[in-house]
Amino acid sequence: MALRLGTDVCTALTDYGTVLLDQRSGEYWELNPTGTIVVQTLLEGGEQGDAVDALVTEFDVERSQAVRDVTALIAQLRATGLVV
User: Which domain of life does the UniProt lineage start with (predicted)?
Assistant: First the structure.
């Protein structure tokens, strides 16, 4: 399930993570390093499982927690229209 950003969404890397800006509404969201890894993995064509694997590899997190976190982030990004 690769994702792509909505047509009106742009990103910027920061020292802390990634900022997503919805140019339609002017709202922005800041992703922490964990969220950044998830989004980058999915935008590069990875599947949800690849994002989970990336979190487990990069951070000291249980696989079950990584699955919940990735699922929740994807749901939030879709609900806000940031990704399709």
Answer: Bacteria
Give residue 73's identity as a one-letter amino acid code. L
Helix (H) or strand (E) holding 30: strand 28-31
Q: How many folded domains does the chain comprise?
A: 1
Largest CA distance in the chain: 37
84, part of any domain: no
Here the CATH number for the domain that contains residue 46 is 1.10.10
Per-residue pLDDT reduced to its tens digit, 44-76: 999 999 999 999 999 989 999 999 999 999 999
On whether the CB atoms of residues 52 and 63 are closer than 8 A, the answer is yes
